[in-house]
Amino acid sequence: MHHRVVTATPPPGYRAMVLRERGAALSLETRPASEPQTHQVLLRVAACAVCRTDLHVVDGELDRGTLPVVPGHQVVGRVIAAGPEAVLGVGDRVGVPWLGWTCGSCAMCRSGRENLCPHARFTGCDVDGGFAELVLADSRFCLRLPGGYEDVEAAPLLCAGLIGYRALRMAGEARRLGLYGFGSAAHIIIQMARHRGADVYAFTRAGDTDGQDFARQLGAVWAGDSTGPAPEPLDAAIIFAPAGELVPLALRALAPGGTVVCAGIHMSDIPSFPYALLWEERSVRSVANLTRADGTDFMEAVAASRVDVETEVLALADADRALELIRSGRARGTVVLVP
Ligand SMILES: [Zn+2]
Ligand SMILES: [Zn+2]
């Protein structure tokens, strides 16, 4: 499908929260809108959920990214202008995920592993993201969103849901599944895991009784401190928290043959641990990014079985406060910015 460049309401400029210096506050700026090129679409942002990865981008904990940049990679928007080769048209509601572009020709891209493309560009890190009123995106990497989810509810599906889903798949057919860190991703993934019949054990920071109550409300069979032992041996554990010391703790909780999946993009160093924790075919692996196929599969799954997404909505100008909520672990569910 080809569409001519059409703009519903040509905006002269738009507001965006811009990261100019790592570790510094974001600055609210008004910038000129650009016309979408070739495969691009220009979206009016309806909602952008905030992810821990945004915090890592802002803090400079990732070994990549350009400056200045507009963070945000869980964007729900509507197309207001489309480039000549775009595969979307004006009015389409779509999501812009973390994977913003891949080369399509490297060994990874050609073997169905575009999540590992060395030339990939990530939204809100290498290219401007959704902490803004408008965003440009490559239409080939935008995801169609399921009906039945409002814009604010759909936004957290785009990373918390999607990368959590990839991690859940890597966890295999776990009957007993541990989730370490009960934030944005875990509150979605627990529902998908329960739907497939798993018993979920939620591990939080020591003393986080609010987080533990939240996990029990969402159906965890057990919730407790991550520093303590698991009540039953687990078939798999997914670590969403960026704390390396959780790796040996999670390994200790596993039954033989179990897997620890590290789902975050950044983690503090993993302390050394005795080989006995890895023995009996236990494994530790990471999950990196997403493929478009993951996106399509995941959106089908959440269309088929409804996920309740708990959100806390803040204004665009409050982006720094939103990041602080994630840093402190005080966010319940997902924080979403609405321009
Ligand atoms: Zn590639
Ligand atoms: Zn993310």
Describe the model.
The chain is of the alpha/beta class. The chain has helices spanning 52-59, 107-110, 151-154, 160-170, 184-195, 209-217, 246-252, 292-304, 319-328, and strands spanning 13-18, 27-32, 40-49, 75-82, 93-96, 99-101, 121-122, 134-138, 143-144, 176-180, 199-204, 222-225, 234-239, 254-262, 283-286, 311-315, 334-338. The protein has 9 helices and 17 strands. Helix 4 packs across helix 8. The radius of gyration is 20 Å and the shape is globular. The model has no long low-confidence stretch (mean pLDDT 95). The structure holds zinc ion (2 copies). One zinc ion binds next to helix 2.
Question: What secondary-structure arrangement, pairings included, does this model have?
Answer:
Elements lengths: L12 E6 L8 E6 L7 E10 L2 H8 L15 E8 L10 E4 L2 E3 L5 H4 L10 E2 L11 E5 L4 E2 L6 H4 L5 H11 L5 E5 L3 H12 L3 E6 L4 H9 L4 E4 L8 E6 L6 H7 L1 E9 L20 E4 L5 H13 L6 E5 L3 H10 L5 E5 L1
Parallel strand pairs: 10-11, 10-13, 11-12, 13-14, 14-15, 16-17
Antiparallel strand pairs: 1-2, 3-4, 3-8, 3-17, 4-5, 5-9, 6-7
Helix pairs in contact: 4-5, 4-8
The chain binds zinc ion (2 copies).
One zinc ion binds next to α2.
